[in-house]
Amino acid sequence: MFTNESKRLADNQIEFSESLLIDLQQNIQRIKELTGNSSDITVRLIQSGVANRFNLAIVYINGLTDTNLINNNILKPIMSDVEIRSTEEPTASELLGFLKNRILSVCGICDIHTTGELLSALFSGNTIVLVDGCKEGIFVSSSKLEQRGVEEPSTQTVIRGPKDGFTENLSTNITLLRRRIKSPNLWIVDRKIGRVTQTDVSILYLKGIANDKVVEEVLHRLDKIDTDSILESGYLEEFIQDQTYTPFPTMINYERPDSVAGGVLEGQVAILVDGTPFVLLVPVTFFNFFQVSEDYYQRYDIASFLRTMRYVTFIVSMLLPSMYIAITTFHQEMLPTTLLISLAAQREGLPFPALVEALIMEITFEVLREAGVRMPRSVGPAISIVGALVLGQAAVQAGLVSAAMVIVVSFTAISNFVAPSYNIAIAARMLRFFLMFLAGTFGLFGIMSGLFALFIHMSGLRSFGVPYLAPMAPFIPRNLKDVFVRVPWSAMLTRPRLISQKNKRRQRNNS
């Protein structure tokens, strides 16, 4: 079975690489065979040229093309009296060139030489023009895809700042970035990835600021991908990331054009994928996941306070349950006497140890959170809020968990929502369970051992050659101006050294 399938795929690859035939009917028959006589593929046969002696075929796919453009800019000009002023009888190739250069009033026109090029252009929404007696063809840009308008991002909202967000259309997303960076040094490199889907991928960077080695590495990793389909930027993220077995993301995704434009101006490389509003940025460090575009639209003191709060809540969301388990199980002497008596009274009669109690509540909250995301929007928030209140109160009254544990788990869940990046919030959620098991087994010594192992692991991570913990490890003092706090704009004179190794100066001293 697999041998026959492999043979069939190999035969298709051979046919895709073959040149077009001279006979028009054979070309049309080959197109129908390779597409399984699909009903949405339309072939229109017409006559044109001197004395209408040339047969032409217009091939397009219903639903992917703009039929008004085909009627007004392709069919009408071709079906009018086309006369080639020549002393000799024109050939089919001359007619095709005359159509391309003088008749068709469309901007995008390209030549076609092989069956693979023809099918790729056809399924991209273009219209194919073939002439009987010519081994070449042309395709005319006529794609018209239904797309969502430019709207405010649903996952990365801000109070102050632009309200536009990326869409699923690649050209629209590139336009949103061009609108912000009006520079000829904004270079774009295109790739098609996926043997079946032929997904358009664009690599966007600022020449003279981005590190050339990073750009070459990004292109090299993309060119090595050999897969059937790329349906979302998450596919590419797994294929080209530096480290697979790590809870920490080594690439960041944005739905906001201003965030991507800011990263490109810092020397990062943007990877845009057709069909998704999420754009990847590389290279990144751990601290990039706590920076949001609004930090640069507010005053520096407000932005610094909010950023510090994000770091604190990230630590709380990862450590609070494990700290509670360790202290109540092994280190009760660390608590004030009054608080210790109150916690002991709450835990009197509970059937489970603190670790099991925390696991029950954490798993319950994770299930409620996931249910709220997957439920319809009209009932999802109500299910998660009401479920948390009802289950928490019922569990306390039933004597399964203590009220203090409900408070700890609830505050942990709220702190987890403060993280601006969903990927780093997921990492904290996974590490929380790991640290809870260590706390329930070894107490605070287990937590410290887990944190040491975590820091060692993070120190070894790289994102396209950039250390994950930069500028803390390696320590670069001048890059600390935009890490834990944000200094005023007048003091941020240079770009991050490890990300942008060319043209590091951002501005002159404007103080």
Structural account:
This protein is an alpha+beta fold. Helices cover 45% and strands 12% of the residues. The strands form 3 sheets. The chain has a 5-stranded antiparallel β-sheet with strand order 1-2-4-5-3, with helices on both faces. It has a 5-stranded antiparallel β-sheet with strand order 6-7-9-10-8, sandwiched between helices. The termini are far apart.
Q: What's the short version?
A:
The chain is of the alpha+beta class and 511 residues long. Helix content is 45%, strand content 12%. It is elongated and about 105 Å long.
Extended strand count: 12
Note the beta-strand portion.
5-15%
Biggest sheet record: 5 strands, antiparallel
Q: What is the CA–CA distance across the termini?
A: 73 Å
Topology record:
Blueprint: H1 2-17, H2 24-34, E1 41-48, E2 54-61, H3 67-79, H4 92-103, E3 109-112, H5 115-122, E4 127-131, E5 137-140, H6 170-180, E6 186-193, E7 199-206, H7 212-223, H8 233-240, E8 252-254, H9 257-265, E9 269-273, E10 279-282, H10 300-329, H11 337-347, H12 354-374, H13 380-397, H14 403-417, H15 422-442, H16 444-459, E11 462-463, E12 466-467
Helix pairs in contact: 1-5, 6-9, 10-14, 10-15, 12-13, 12-14, 12-15, 15-16
Which key features would you list for this structure?
5-stranded antiparallel β-sheet, 511 residues, single chain
